[in-house]
Every structure is written in structure tokens, then in C-alpha cells.
């Protein structure tokens, strides 16, 4: 009898716990996997003890190490994101680690104690080419292109609202502008090879439909996607089974029919016609227009820079994506071995424009695991003006790096269209976490900039960072990537302008 009572009590307790897990909104994993989901948190709690004997160290996991994920999670939850007892990096032997050189003295610096402190771009997007709707982005950290369809509606809604709370922009991805992108965040509308949302019946580009999309949403810029780091030079196929009425309506495609995304654009066929297309979009919409691409052969970039040097046509921004692979599902060879890693690829692109003196004439945006302070600092030193974050933003709203993005079985409901799994995400609470992460990353960049003695991360130079080669050699970032004097740096007028903008409030205090 006693055993029966104990069993009944235990069953009741489990049932109550399951009921609580199903209705709570704090943890997506527990909503989707009541009771058993607690095992993950238990293992996470005793992880440091387990890792002393088995599995990997805090720095070994890929693509994001345990320490990197811990920093993102803590930042998103506004918890203590400091680390104690020294670095876990093997600084005496590791190759390729970057170290910033702090300065003893510095000039004017912004207030580093204000968590809401702005960190705008040092450049006006579209300003050099006189676009009608040119603007200065309010945040140097923005959310990268991830389509509705790849991510769930709840995840897109959380990211968009989070961008709005943090004053950042949100790239729609090539899957079209969905209702989930309309939660208050400013948008960058991406046009892929299939022109989803602005295509005709044959899949060609339709300018009138583009104007209609822009007219009803807070679109601040247009990005033409040439390729992405996850699968550069590769098209895609959306199976008809996944083309629901909702997705069909957003993308402008027939319900239930296979839809191919070509590997190349049909609206233009070379750099010259691409620039005509860019100018058409900019003239008809007034918006800044740029291109996104991973970096492979360099003749494309050389021709683009050469044609832009004439001054009559040009892109307003270039988004360089690292070839390390990202949120897009792809064949292993594309993720591992197609296109250059970010630092090498970006430095080559930047150098191509620098040789012709064009770097102040356009905004450089970087993406590819740059949502960590150390990686972001290196990117800014190489000449990046803004960064886009994707996987890091997913981690901030609950991603656990399960690496099931391509299976439609994401356990936290982020990279899936499964309604049961997607219900685990509470967009309102996850939006707050996304905003916290974006703000924290900006604050960290301000701190590291101040340590180097400058007011803005774009003022960090390629000579301010050294790349270590074990304990016997170190070379500056400029030396590693062949930068000439002044490369990676803002022009004097831009440097003075952004410094004055960030320090004006402090200087006017009583």
C-alpha cells in the first residue's frame, strides 16, 4: 500500500511538472519536451565536473565553443558574462589567435557606463552616391539574412522585435518579407535569385511588385544576394510539400509545387548589367542598394571596383560573407571547402577597393561568426563598418547548437516549420533576449575600442591587433593580410565625424 501511494504521488508530481512545462514560456525546450527536457539543464549544471574527465574542453567545440555559447546565453539573459581564473586559450602555443594592443593614453571617449549607449555606423549608408533615402544606421550590429521558411515564424518574429528593441536592422533573407518581419524592426530586403515576393509568373524580377512590398514595410535598404557563405554558387530547391499556402503567398509561388532557386541571377548577367540593375532599384525606390557575396575568384571584385571608379554607377554597400558555412543547410563540401574564410576573403575584397581609393565611398558589412567581440574587433580592424549576426542571434533566442537545422527537427523550434516544435518559442520573451545580446555586443565593442584608445570600433586599425604564431612570433593584422599604410582605416573626415558624434553628449554634460 505504501509503495502504491509513493508511486501515485510520484506520478502526480511528474504530471504537474509536465503541465507546468507545457504552459511556461521561459524555456522553449521544456515546452516541446516536458519533464525529459530538464535532463539537459541538469547535465549543463554539472558540465564543468563532467568535462574534467570526458568529452571536450570549453574551447574545443565547433562551430561555437562552450565558452562562446555561454557568453552569448549570459548576455541574452542579462546575467554575469564574465569569466574567472584566467583564459582557457593556450596562449603560449596556439597559432592564429588575435590580441589587441591597449593604449596607455587616449583622447575623447564616449560614456562606457550607459547600457543604452548608441553605437551608430561611422558611414552614412547611400550618402556618397546621393540616394534619396540615405541614412546613418543606428547600430553597427544587425541581424543577418535568415528567411522565413528556414526559420519558424515565431523565431523570425522574436528576432525582428528584438532588433526593434535594440535599434538594429533585420535582413529578411531571400525568402520574402513575411508578416513575422513586421514586428517593429527596420528591414533590409534581400533579393535572391528567385526574387521571392517580387517575381512574375515565370520567376523573373518584377519591379512593380518590389515597390508594393517596400511601400508597406519599414525597408531601409535592398541587398542583392549573389551568394552566401553556407553554399556559394549553389542554387536550391524548395520541395512542393513544404510550399504551404502561407509560404506560397509570401514568396509568390504556386501552392504545393516544387520551386527552384537558380544558382545565378536572371535580371543581369555580368558586372556591367548588375550595376545597371543596382541603379534602377536605387532610382525607383530611393533606397541604398548593395550586394552580398562570399569570396571566390577575384575578377568579379576587380571589375566592380574598376567600374565604380568611374563615378557614374556603384553599389552603396558590400556584404562579404565568410565561406565557413552558416545558417543555410548545404552539402558538406560547400560548408567546408567552397569560398574563402571571412578574414582572408574580406581582406582581398577591401584591398581591391583600397587600391583605387574607394573605401570611403561605400559601406563594408561583414558576416560569418562575427557576433563575438574578438572576431568583431578583428573585422573592424580589417575595414568592416558594420557586422551582421545570424547563428549568434539564434543562440540568443534559445538555439542549443543541436545542428539539426536541415532536418526540420530543431528541438527548440527555431529552424523548423513543425508547428509543435515552433510553439516552444515565446516571441515576446525571446525578443528581449535578442535585444539584450545585441546591446551587450555593442557595449563590449565600445569597451574594447576604449581600451585601444579610440571612440568607435571602426577606428581600430590593422596595426592595433597582432596575430600570434605560438610563443615565438607575432605579426600585425596588417602584415598578415598585406595591408598598405592607411588600409582598414576611415578617412580623416569620417573619423572626426564619428568621434564627435559619440563624444558630444559627454562633452556637453554640466
From TrEMBL:
Which GO BP terms sit in this record?
A: glutamate biosynthetic process
Print the keywords alphabetically: Oxidoreductase
What GO terms are given for molecular function?
glutamate synthase activity
Q: What is this protein called?
A: FMN-binding glutamate synthase family protein
EC number assigned by the record: 1.4.-.-
Domain Glutamate synthase, residue spans: 138-454
- Which superkingdom? Bacteria
Q: Which family does it belong to?
A: Belongs to the glutamate synthase family.
Tell me which Gene3D superfamilies the record gives.
Aldolase class I
The family database entries (PANTHER family) matched by this protein are listed as: ARCHAEAL-TYPE GLUTAMATE SYNTHASE [NADPH] (PTHR43819)
Q: Reply yes or no: does the keyword Oxidoreductase apply.
A: yes
Stretches that traverse the bilayer = none
Q: Which organism is it from?
A: Kitasatospora camelliae
Amino acid at each position: 500500500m505504501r509503495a502504491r501511494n509513493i508511486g501515485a504521488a510520484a506520478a502526480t508530481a511528474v504530471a504537474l511538472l509536465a503541465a507546468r512545462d507545457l504552459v511556461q514560456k521561459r524555456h522553449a525546450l521544456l515546452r516541446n519536451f516536458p519533464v525529459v527536457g530538464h535532463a539537459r539543464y541538469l547535465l549543463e549544471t554539472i558540465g564543468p565536473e563532467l568535462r574534467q574527465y570526458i568529452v571536450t574542453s570549453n574551447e574545443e567545440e565547433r562551430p561555437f565553443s562552450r565558452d562562446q555559447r555561454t557568453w552569448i546565453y549570459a548576455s541574452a539573459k542579462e546575467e554575469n558574462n564574465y569569466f574567472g581564473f584566467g583564459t582557457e586559450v593556450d596562449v603560449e602555443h596556439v597559432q592564429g589567435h588575435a590580441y589587441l594592443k591597449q593604449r596607455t593614453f587616449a583622447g575623447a571617449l564616449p560614456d562606457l557606463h550607459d547600457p543604452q549607449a548608441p553605437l551608430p555606423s561611422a558611414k552614412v549608408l547611400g550618402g556618397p552616391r546621393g540616394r534619396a533615402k540615405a541614412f546613418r544606421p543606428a547600430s553597427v550590429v544587425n541581424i543577418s539574412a535568415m528567411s522565413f521558411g528556414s526559420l519558424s515564424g515565431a523565431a523570425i518574429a522574436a528576432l525582428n522585435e528584438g532588433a526593434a528593441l535594440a535599434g538594429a536592422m533585420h535582413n529578411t533573407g531571400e525568402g520574402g518579407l513575411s508578416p513575422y518581419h513586421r514586428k517593429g524592426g527596420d528591414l533590409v530586403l534581400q533579393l535572391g535569385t528567385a526574387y521571392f515576393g517580387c517575381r512574375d509568373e515565370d520567376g523573373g524580377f518584377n519591379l512593380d511588385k518590389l515597390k508594393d512590398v517596400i511601400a508597406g514595410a519599414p525597408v531601409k535598404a535592398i541587398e542583392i544576394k549573389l551568394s552566401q557563405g553556407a553554399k556559394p554558387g549553389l542554387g536550391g530547391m524548395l520541395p512542393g510539400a513544404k510550399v504551404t499556402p502561407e509560404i506560397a503567398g509570401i514568396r509568390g509561388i504556386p501552392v504545393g509545387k516544387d520551386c527552384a532557386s537558380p544558382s545565378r541571377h536572371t535580371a543581369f548577367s555580368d558586372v556591367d548589367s548588375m550595376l545597371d540593375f543596382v541603379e534602377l532599384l536605387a532610382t525607383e525606390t530611393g533606397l541604398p542598394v548593395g550586394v552580398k557575396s562570399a569570396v571566390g575568384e577575384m575578377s568579379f571584385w576587380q571589375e566592380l571596383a574598376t567600374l565604380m571608379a568611374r563615378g557614374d554607377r556603384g553599389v552603396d554597400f558590400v556584404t562579404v560573407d565568410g565561406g565557413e558555412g552558416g545558417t543555410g543547410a548545404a552539402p558538406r563540401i560547400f560548408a567546408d571547402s567552397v569560398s574563402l574564410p571571412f578574414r582572408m576573403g574580406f581582406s582581398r575584397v577591401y584591398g581591391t577597393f583600397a587600391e583605387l581609393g574607394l573605401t570611403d565611398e561605400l559601406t563594408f558589412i561583414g558576416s560569418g561568426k562575427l557576433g563575438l567581440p574578438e572576431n568583431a574587433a578583428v573585422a573592424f580592424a580589417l575595414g568592416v563598418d558594420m557586422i551582421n549576426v545570424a547563428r549568434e542571434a539564434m543562440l540568443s533566442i534559445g538555439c542549443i547548437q543541436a545542428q539539426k537545422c536541415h532536418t526540420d527537427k530543431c528541438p527548440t523550434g527555431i529552424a523548423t516549420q513543425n508547428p509543435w516544435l515552433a510553439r516552444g518559442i515565446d516571441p515576446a520573451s525571446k525578443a528581449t533576449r535578442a535585444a539584450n545580446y545585441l546591446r551587450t555586443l555593442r557595449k563590449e565593442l565600445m569597451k574594447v575600442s576604449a581600451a585601444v584608445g579610440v571612440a568607435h570600433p571602426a577606428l581600430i586599425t590593422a596595426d592595433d591587433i597582432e596575430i600570434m604564431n605560438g610563443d615565438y612570433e607575432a605579426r600585425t593584422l596588417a602584415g598578415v593580410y598585406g595591408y598598405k599604410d592607411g588600409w582598414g582605416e576611415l578617412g580623416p573626415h569620417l573619423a572626426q565625424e564619428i568621434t564627435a558624434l559619440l563624444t558630444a553628449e559627454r562633452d556637453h554634460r554640466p
